[in-house]
Structures are given as C-alpha cells and as structure tokens.
Recover the amino acids of this structure.
C-alpha cells in the first residue's frame, strides 16, 4: 500500500469515457447507478475535495457521511451546510483536511480544474479511474490524458458491464 508521508492516502477519483470526457454542464454525462455506488463506497467516512461547479452539480448537498471541502474563491454563504469547508486552493484544501482529519483518506473528486491543479502540483499518489463503456456527450474533459506515464496501472479494482475501475499509483 503506497502512502504519502504521515500515512494518509491522497486519491484522485474520476469516471471518464474513452475520450477523457468526465462531465457536461449539469453533471455526469451517464447514469450508471453501480458506478455511483462504487464512488460512494470508496469515499464513505473520508474527505472529499471538489470545485465549486462540482459542488453545485450535486443533487444532494453535502455528500453524506463525508467531510466536504470546496475549492472556490467566489462561493458565498455556506452556513446552511454542516460539514462543509470552503477554501481558495487545492493546496489549502489538502493542508486543512490533513491537519483536521489526519486519520482519513483524501479524495479529489473533481472537476477538471481541481484535477488539473492536483496533478500539476503532484498532490496525489493514487488514481481510481472508472473507464466508462460507450459514447457520451458532454463538454468537460479530464485534464491529463497521459496520466499513465506518472501513474502506471497497479490493478483492476472493479469490473462491470458498463465500466472498469483501475487503480494507478506512483
């Protein structure tokens, strides 16, 4: 089990089609309940870090049984939500979460700009990517399609008719 100093894992979790599509203006381009269940099981009782657009696309806020951290410089009043922290950068999100919840795994859950920031700054040590079968329409793409050069495949985590989830580690 590859871990960063301090013993915590930093995992980027995403689902994408063969072209790197991860979203559209309203959320996910697909409706695959078993993939959502995989995401939920993976992130339960952990910390999830997301951008404002991802937060706004959630049908139910905050994500239950998780510490929700939103990266935004423009997000307004969040007092109506328990278990929500708003910070201005991915680095600040990780720093706060590791200080406050040192025993939890951190999951970067999107969107594209948050993924890009985390990858460019080498802030994650593991990727969990659900590769969706089929062709979908959308307008948001995973920012780095050559992630396998930095993160070779470690193993297949989950196989389903509609997707295969692979784990990639540094």
């Amino acid at each position: 089990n590859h871990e960063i100093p301090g013993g915590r894992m930093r995992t980027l979790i995403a689902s994408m089609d063969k072209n790197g599509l991860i979203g559209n203006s309203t959320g996910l381009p697909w409706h695959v309940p078993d993939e959502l269940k995989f995401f939920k099981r993976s992130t339960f009782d952990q910390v999830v870090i997301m951008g404002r657009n991802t937060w706004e696309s959630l049908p139910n806020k905050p994500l239950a049984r998780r510490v929700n951290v939103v990266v935004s410089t423009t997000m307004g009043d969040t007092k109506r939500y328990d278990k929500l922290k708003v910070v201005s950068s991915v680095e600040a999100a990780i720093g706060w979460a590791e200080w406050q919840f040192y025993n939890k795994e951190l999951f970067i859950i999107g969107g594209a700009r948050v993924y890009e920031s985390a990858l460019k700054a080498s802030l994650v040590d593991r990727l969990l990517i659900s590769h969706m079968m089929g062709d979908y329409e959308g307008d948001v793409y995973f920012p780095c399609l050559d992630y396998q050069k930095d993160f070779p495949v470690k193993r297949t985590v989950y196989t389903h008719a509609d997707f295969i989830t692979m784990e990639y580690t540094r």
User: Anything to note?
Assistant: Confidence is low (pLDDT under 50) at residues 1-6. The longest helix spans residues 33-43.
